[in-house]
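Try this one yourself first.
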Protein backbone atom coordinates (compact mmCIF):
# COMPACT_ATOMS: atom_id res chain seq x y z
CA UNK A 1 0.00 0.00 0.00
CA UNK A 2 1.30 3.53 -0.82
CA UNK A 3 1.99 5.79 2.20
CA UNK A 4 0.39 9.28 1.87
CA UNK A 5 2.91 11.94 0.69
CA UNK A 6 2.93 14.10 3.91
CA UNK A 7 3.59 11.00 6.06
CA UNK A 8 6.33 9.89 3.68
CA UNK A 9 7.87 13.40 3.90
CA UNK A 10 7.77 13.54 7.70
CA UNK A 11 8.86 9.91 8.04
CA UNK A 12 11.94 10.39 5.83
CA UNK A 13 15.15 9.69 7.79
CA UNK A 14 16.51 13.21 7.16
CA UNK A 15 13.33 14.75 8.61
CA UNK A 16 13.53 12.49 11.67
CA UNK A 17 17.21 13.46 12.04
CA UNK A 18 16.20 17.13 12.00
CA UNK A 19 13.51 16.41 14.58
CA UNK A 20 16.10 14.73 16.81
CA UNK A 21 18.36 17.83 16.75
CA UNK A 22 15.37 20.12 17.40
CA UNK A 23 14.13 17.90 20.24
CA UNK A 24 17.63 17.77 21.75
CA UNK A 25 17.81 21.57 22.02
CA UNK A 26 15.50 22.07 25.07
CA UNK A 27 17.06 18.99 26.71
CA UNK A 28 20.52 20.53 26.21
CA UNK A 29 19.34 23.85 27.72
CA UNK A 30 17.96 21.98 30.73
CA UNK A 31 21.17 19.94 31.12
CA UNK A 32 23.37 23.05 30.92
CA UNK A 33 21.16 24.86 33.46
CA UNK A 34 21.34 21.91 35.87
CA UNK A 35 25.13 21.61 35.45
CA UNK A 36 25.53 25.37 36.03
CA UNK A 37 23.47 25.12 39.22
CA UNK A 38 25.75 22.31 40.38
CA UNK A 39 28.70 24.60 39.72
CA UNK A 40 29.94 22.66 36.66
CA UNK A 41 28.89 24.95 33.79
CA UNK A 42 30.21 23.33 30.59
CA UNK A 43 32.36 25.06 27.93
CA UNK A 44 30.94 25.61 24.40
CA UNK A 45 32.62 22.34 23.34
CA UNK A 46 30.85 20.61 26.20
CA UNK A 47 27.49 22.15 25.23
CA UNK A 48 27.97 20.90 21.65
CA UNK A 49 28.74 17.41 22.91
CA UNK A 50 25.69 17.40 25.20
CA UNK A 51 23.49 18.52 22.28
CA UNK A 52 24.99 15.78 20.08
CA UNK A 53 24.50 13.12 22.76
CA UNK A 54 20.83 14.05 23.29
CA UNK A 55 20.24 14.12 19.54
CA UNK A 56 21.89 10.69 19.11
CA UNK A 57 19.69 9.31 21.89
CA UNK A 58 16.54 10.74 20.29
CA UNK A 59 17.66 9.41 16.89
CA UNK A 60 17.86 5.96 18.44
CA UNK A 61 14.36 6.39 19.95
CA UNK A 62 13.07 7.52 16.54
CA UNK A 63 14.38 4.31 14.99
CA UNK A 64 17.12 5.88 12.85
CA UNK A 65 19.94 3.67 11.60
CA UNK A 66 23.23 3.58 13.51
CA UNK A 67 25.07 5.90 11.09
CA UNK A 68 22.42 8.57 11.65
CA UNK A 69 23.07 8.37 15.40
CA UNK A 70 26.79 8.90 14.73
CA UNK A 71 25.98 11.89 12.49
CA UNK A 72 23.70 13.35 15.18
CA UNK A 73 26.49 13.02 17.76
CA UNK A 74 29.21 14.73 15.74
CA UNK A 75 27.03 17.35 14.01
CA UNK A 76 26.98 20.04 16.78
CA UNK A 77 30.76 19.80 17.46
CA UNK A 78 31.35 20.03 13.67
CA UNK A 79 29.20 23.19 13.49
CA UNK A 80 31.30 24.68 16.28
CA UNK A 81 34.52 23.67 14.52
CA UNK A 82 33.34 25.18 11.20
CA UNK A 83 32.52 28.45 12.99
CA UNK A 84 36.05 28.51 14.37
CA UNK A 85 37.52 28.26 10.86
CA UNK A 86 36.11 31.69 10.11
CA UNK A 87 35.10 30.76 6.57
CA UNK A 88 33.15 33.33 4.49
CA UNK A 89 29.39 32.81 5.07
CA UNK A 90 28.80 32.90 1.28
CA UNK A 91 30.72 29.64 0.97
CA UNK A 92 28.09 27.81 3.03
CA UNK A 93 25.35 29.24 0.82
CA UNK A 94 27.16 28.20 -2.37
CA UNK A 95 27.74 24.67 -1.03
CA UNK A 96 24.13 24.42 0.14
CA UNK A 97 22.77 25.44 -3.28
CA UNK A 98 25.17 23.04 -5.05
CA UNK A 99 24.19 20.10 -2.85
CA UNK A 100 20.53 21.03 -3.23
CA UNK A 101 20.76 21.02 -7.04
CA UNK A 102 22.59 17.68 -7.10
CA UNK A 103 20.71 15.81 -4.38
CA UNK A 104 17.32 17.59 -4.59
CA UNK A 105 14.74 15.09 -3.24
CA UNK A 106 17.21 12.56 -1.84
CA UNK A 107 15.92 13.23 1.69
CA UNK A 108 12.55 11.85 0.47
CA UNK A 109 13.54 9.26 -2.16
CA UNK A 110 16.58 7.95 -0.23
CA UNK A 111 18.31 7.58 -3.61
CA UNK A 112 21.42 9.78 -3.86
CA UNK A 113 23.54 10.23 -6.97
CA UNK A 114 26.36 7.77 -7.60
CA UNK A 115 27.26 6.59 -11.11
CA UNK A 116 27.16 2.99 -12.33
CA UNK A 117 30.11 2.83 -14.76
CA UNK A 118 31.27 1.07 -17.90
CA UNK A 119 31.15 -2.51 -16.56
CA UNK A 120 27.43 -2.03 -15.78
CA UNK A 121 26.77 -0.41 -19.17
CA UNK A 122 28.47 -3.38 -20.94
CA UNK A 123 26.30 -5.83 -18.99
CA UNK A 124 23.11 -3.87 -19.79
CA UNK A 125 23.98 -3.65 -23.51
CA UNK A 126 24.66 -7.42 -23.52
CA UNK A 127 21.17 -8.17 -22.17
CA UNK A 128 19.22 -6.05 -24.67
CA UNK A 129 17.35 -8.05 -27.33
CA UNK A 130 19.30 -7.35 -30.54
CA UNK A 131 16.60 -8.35 -33.06
CA UNK A 132 14.30 -5.30 -32.78
CA UNK A 133 14.28 -1.59 -31.93
CA UNK A 134 13.48 -0.92 -28.28
CA UNK A 135 12.25 1.89 -26.07
CA UNK A 136 14.61 2.00 -23.09
CA UNK A 137 14.44 4.10 -19.91
CA UNK A 138 17.01 4.72 -17.21
CA UNK A 139 14.89 5.76 -14.22
CA UNK A 140 17.12 8.07 -12.19
CA UNK A 141 19.63 8.71 -14.96
CA UNK A 142 22.11 10.88 -13.01
CA UNK A 143 24.64 12.52 -15.32
CA UNK A 144 23.38 10.42 -18.24
CA UNK A 145 26.38 8.10 -18.74
CA UNK A 146 24.39 4.91 -19.31
CA UNK A 147 21.77 6.59 -21.50
CA UNK A 148 24.35 8.24 -23.77
CA UNK A 149 26.34 5.00 -24.01
CA UNK A 150 23.27 2.91 -24.96
CA UNK A 151 22.09 5.53 -27.46
CA UNK A 152 25.54 5.35 -29.10
CA UNK A 153 25.63 1.53 -29.17
CA UNK A 154 22.02 1.08 -30.27
CA UNK A 155 21.08 3.76 -32.82
CA UNK A 156 17.94 1.70 -33.60
CA UNK A 157 16.59 2.26 -30.06
CA UNK A 158 14.99 5.24 -28.30
CA UNK A 159 16.83 5.75 -25.02
CA UNK A 160 15.36 8.06 -22.35
CA UNK A 161 16.86 9.24 -19.10
CA UNK A 162 14.45 10.30 -16.36
CA UNK A 163 16.03 12.39 -13.63
CA UNK A 164 14.55 14.37 -10.77
CA UNK A 165 17.56 16.43 -9.64
CA UNK A 166 18.02 19.65 -11.67
CA UNK A 167 21.81 19.78 -12.00
CA UNK A 168 22.42 16.16 -13.14
CA UNK A 169 19.49 16.53 -15.56
CA UNK A 170 20.92 19.77 -16.99
CA UNK A 171 24.39 18.24 -17.34
CA UNK A 172 22.93 15.23 -19.22
CA UNK A 173 20.94 17.52 -21.54
CA UNK A 174 24.12 19.47 -22.31
CA UNK A 175 26.12 16.26 -22.84
CA UNK A 176 23.48 15.00 -25.29
CA UNK A 177 23.39 18.32 -27.16
CA UNK A 178 27.19 18.62 -27.35
CA UNK A 179 27.67 15.04 -28.54
CA UNK A 180 24.75 15.16 -31.02
CA UNK A 181 23.10 12.20 -29.24
CA UNK A 182 19.52 11.14 -29.96
CA UNK A 183 19.08 10.31 -26.27
CA UNK A 184 16.29 12.20 -24.52
CA UNK A 185 16.45 13.47 -20.95
CA UNK A 186 13.29 14.28 -19.03
CA UNK A 187 13.29 16.11 -15.72
CA UNK A 188 10.64 14.15 -13.87
CA UNK A 189 9.92 11.87 -10.96
CA UNK A 190 9.91 8.38 -12.48
CA UNK A 191 6.88 7.63 -10.29
CA UNK A 192 4.88 9.84 -12.67
CA UNK A 193 6.20 8.19 -15.85
CA UNK A 194 4.23 5.30 -17.30
CA UNK A 195 6.51 2.28 -17.63
CA UNK A 196 4.19 0.75 -20.25
CA UNK A 197 5.88 3.02 -22.83
CA UNK A 198 9.12 1.08 -22.44
CA UNK A 199 10.44 -2.34 -23.47
CA UNK A 200 13.34 -2.06 -21.03
CA UNK A 201 13.48 -0.15 -17.74
CA UNK A 202 16.88 0.12 -16.05
CA UNK A 203 17.26 1.28 -12.44
CA UNK A 204 20.26 1.95 -10.24
CA UNK A 205 18.55 3.26 -7.13
CA UNK A 206 18.85 2.10 -3.50
CA UNK A 207 17.40 -0.63 -1.27
CA UNK A 208 14.81 1.86 0.04
CA UNK A 209 13.30 2.32 -3.45
CA UNK A 210 13.08 -1.29 -4.60
CA UNK A 211 9.71 -2.40 -3.20
CA UNK A 212 7.98 0.68 -4.68
CA UNK A 213 9.75 0.18 -8.00
CA UNK A 214 8.50 -3.39 -8.18
CA UNK A 215 4.89 -2.40 -7.38
CA UNK A 216 4.99 0.16 -10.20
CA UNK A 217 6.68 -2.18 -12.67
CA UNK A 218 4.25 -5.00 -11.90
CA UNK A 219 1.29 -2.69 -12.50
CA UNK A 220 2.54 -0.99 -15.67
CA UNK A 221 5.09 -3.06 -17.58
CA UNK A 222 3.85 -4.91 -20.64
CA UNK A 223 4.28 -8.67 -21.24
CA UNK A 224 7.67 -9.24 -22.86
CA UNK A 225 9.24 -6.14 -21.32
CA UNK A 226 12.30 -6.25 -19.04
CA UNK A 227 13.16 -4.62 -15.71
CA UNK A 228 16.86 -4.35 -14.89
CA UNK A 229 18.29 -3.33 -11.54
CA UNK A 230 21.98 -2.81 -10.93
CA UNK A 231 23.29 -3.85 -7.52
CA UNK A 232 19.94 -3.83 -5.71
CA UNK A 233 17.66 -6.85 -5.59
CA UNK A 234 13.91 -6.77 -5.00
CA UNK A 235 13.01 -8.46 -1.71
CA UNK A 236 10.95 -11.62 -2.27
CA UNK A 237 11.08 -11.40 -6.09
CA UNK A 238 13.34 -14.01 -7.64
CA UNK A 239 15.09 -12.46 -10.68
CA UNK A 240 14.97 -14.34 -13.99
CA UNK A 241 18.67 -13.65 -14.52
CA UNK A 242 21.64 -12.43 -12.51
CA UNK A 243 24.71 -11.16 -14.33
CA UNK A 244 27.89 -10.60 -12.34
CA UNK A 245 29.50 -7.56 -13.95
CA UNK A 246 33.22 -7.58 -14.64
CA UNK A 247 35.56 -5.62 -12.33
CA UNK A 248 33.05 -4.52 -9.74
CA UNK A 249 31.51 -7.96 -9.00
CA UNK A 250 28.23 -6.12 -8.56
CA UNK A 251 25.17 -7.90 -9.90
CA UNK A 252 22.75 -6.83 -12.61
CA UNK A 253 19.32 -8.34 -11.90
CA UNK A 254 16.77 -9.00 -14.66
CA UNK A 255 13.04 -9.63 -14.37
CA UNK A 256 11.08 -10.60 -17.48
CA UNK A 257 7.38 -9.69 -17.56
C1 LIG B 1 22.48 5.91 -8.11
S1 LIG B 1 22.14 7.22 -9.22
C2 LIG B 1 22.20 6.33 -10.75
C3 LIG B 1 22.59 7.18 -11.92
C4 LIG B 1 22.61 6.48 -13.28
N1 LIG B 1 21.40 5.73 -13.52
C5 LIG B 1 23.78 5.59 -13.45
O1 LIG B 1 23.59 4.39 -13.66
O2 LIG B 1 24.93 6.09 -13.41
C6 LIG B 1 20.37 7.44 -8.92
C7 LIG B 1 19.78 8.69 -9.52
O3 LIG B 1 18.36 8.59 -9.40
C8 LIG B 1 17.83 9.89 -9.20
N2 LIG B 1 16.48 9.70 -8.62
C9 LIG B 1 16.18 9.26 -7.38
N3 LIG B 1 14.85 9.18 -7.22
C10 LIG B 1 14.29 9.57 -8.40
C11 LIG B 1 12.95 9.69 -8.85
N4 LIG B 1 11.93 9.38 -8.06
N5 LIG B 1 12.76 10.11 -10.13
C12 LIG B 1 13.80 10.41 -10.94
N6 LIG B 1 15.10 10.34 -10.55
C13 LIG B 1 15.34 9.91 -9.29
C14 LIG B 1 18.84 10.54 -8.28
O4 LIG B 1 18.74 11.96 -8.35
C15 LIG B 1 20.17 10.00 -8.85
O5 LIG B 1 20.69 10.86 -9.80
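Now uncover the answer:
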Amino acid sequence: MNTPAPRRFLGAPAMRALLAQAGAFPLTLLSVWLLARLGAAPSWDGVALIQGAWAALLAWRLGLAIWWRAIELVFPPCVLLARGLDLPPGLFLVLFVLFLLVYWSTFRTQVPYYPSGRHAWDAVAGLLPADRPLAIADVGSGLGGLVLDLARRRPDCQVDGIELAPLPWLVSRLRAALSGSRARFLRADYETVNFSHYDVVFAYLSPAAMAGLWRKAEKEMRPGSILLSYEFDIPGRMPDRRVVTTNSKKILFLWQF
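Discussion: The radius of gyration is 23 Å. Residues 109, 111, 113-116, 138, 140-142, 145-146, 162-165, 168, 189-191, 204-205 surround S-adenosylmethionine (CB under 6 Å).
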